Amino acid sequence: MLLPKEKLQLLSMMDILEPLSQEQIEELIEWLPDTHFEQGQIIYTPEDRSEALFLLKTGRVRIYRLNPKGDEFTLAVVEAGTVFGEMALTAQRLPGAYAEAMESAYVCILKSEDVEHIVREHPDVGLKMMQVLSERLRLYEDRLEDIGLKSVPARLASLILQLTQSEGIMTNEGPKIPTRYTHQQLAAMISANRVSVTKTFAQLQDAGAVELKRRHIYVKDVEALEGAARK
Fold this sequence. Notes:
four-stranded antiparallel beta sheet, 2 domains, alpha+beta
């Protein structure tokens, strides 16, 4: 369970709550209880009828769908400090989506009436929320387009670029993706099989675009990776 000081610190780092003062965030804490999800636990499914938005305080969440064969493909990996979910009020709709905790995660669940209350009290938060969720929806649509139209090498290159942008850190050896993704996980993200991802990753390494060290992906040549993503 999170302590009050931890709750305040984590909510203060939330992107959609940037317009609020510390006192205003403290008021939110009073009526926004935490919910804990274990690694691998499903947060919502397409069958869920209740509309909600989720403030991700700690951990990471995977948003995914199933293809016609029943295989999973990942649309996004959501990092702590932002919001995810879908709700008619915010015009964010992604039919058929699942959300799964990739690791132990603490979230605040905002029901429709909670979102309405916050937006009425703090319009700037509503604008920030729309901005963040609209960008997230654009990412989902790009991922769906990639899967439908691009080859496996182009899809993998696009994914690595997206992961670099969303969670990459700069090192002396170039941008590094801190999460250790397995080839099976990468395959699920681009609706491919592990063998094809392993083969494609080797090709990207031979081209000097990426390098794998201690199971971390390093981007060595962004232009080469961007070129592969366009093919």
